[in-house]
Amino acid sequence: MTYNIKLYKMIIIKELQRFFIYRTNIFTGIMTALFMLGARYALWMALFATGNAEQSSLLETMTYFIISGIIFVWISPSYGNNIGEDIRSGDIAQRLIRPCSYHLMLIASFHATSMASTLIRSLPTLIVALIFISILPPASTSIFLFFLLAVILGAIIFSLVDLIISYTAFWMTDFWYLSWFKRALFTLFGGLAVPLWFYPEWLRMICEYLPFQYTIYQPLAIYLGRVSPDQIITTIAVQVFWVAVLFLIERIVWRFVQKKLVVQGG
Fold first, then answer.
1. How far apart are CA 65 and CA 263, in angstroms?
2. Which pLDDT tens digit goes with each residue over 172-225?
3. How far apart (Å, rounded) are the C-alpha atoms in residues 42 and 56?
4. How far apart are CA 217 and CA 226, in angstroms?
5. Whole-angstrom distance, CA of residue 121 vs CA of residue 174
6. Which of 75, 112, 165, 232 has a beta carbon 3.0–4.6 Å from 15's, enabling a disulfide?
7. Distance of CA 44 to CAs 63, 136, 176, 217, 218, Å?
8. Residue 222 confidence (pLDDT)
């Protein structure tokens, strides 16, 4: 256990050092984040000016996108890129026989990328938003605590879905499509691009039966008070259910992956 913690810290430090070597990463990250904030704010201002967004207020919608952006940097890096590169280079065979867990190395690299994105994207966006736009606070301390719990469970759901999709690289021997496919699923069914309260009823019903909305939309619905207090526990319970189901699927798929290893590079 102690060895795993030390390894986790070491990988994160090395990944952060590698990222911040290039100053252009910092500048481009900050400018891209601020540009996206400005573009999104202008877009929604125009939409609300037409009166076509009556189901929400501009401040509520911007709060949704600002906080979802902060959450997303912790779940957006794709395991598929790392797994695919390892398969293509042939390093996957060596990584799997190492005494340290392959999944631990993936998670540590994943978290290092998220930390860097938080510093150069989320933090500047939050500061600028608080100064020029403002965001809604949670209704109460207890609501905020439930929100944090829902965010953690949502991140686990996202990671499990990402791993399951990423494992297909072992069969397809390619990985360029993985990030695109994952993002498309969460954009359409998870409320990543548009909050689900703007969706037509039939599409919302489909989302209800899928795990994707429980990663970002439902935690933010709790934060914004769109989930009644008596329904919050139900939402958390559904998240736990999806964590259990997806974990079982991930373990089954991983067993098949280890028996179906095809290496291109070596």
1. 40
2. 766 667 777 888 888 889 888 888 988 889 999 999 999 999 999 999 999 999
3. 16
4. 10
5. 29
6. 112
7. 12, 16, 32, 18, 21
8. 95
Measuring CA to CA, which residue among 237, 234, 222, 70 is closest to residue 147?
A: 222
Q: Which two tokens stand for residue 149?
A: 């719990």
The model's pLDDT over 20-37, given as tens digits with 9 standing for 90+, comes to 666 676 777 778 778 888
The CB-based long-range contact list for 132-141 (8 Å cut-off, 24+ gap) reads: 133/41, 133/59, 133/62, 133/66, 134/59, 135/59, 135/62, 135/63, 135/66, 135/67, 136/59, 136/60, 136/63, 136/224, 138/223, 139/225
b/e per residue 33-58 (b: at least 16 CB within 10 A): bbeebeeebeebeeebeeeebeebee
Residues with Cβ within 8 Å of residue 198, at least 6 apart in sequence: 53, 55, 56
The tokens of 251 are what? 């373990």
Tell me the C-alpha distance between 83 and 87, whole Å: 6
For the record, the structure tokens of 206 come out as 């489909």
Alpha-carbon gap, residue 90 to 113, rounded angstroms: 23
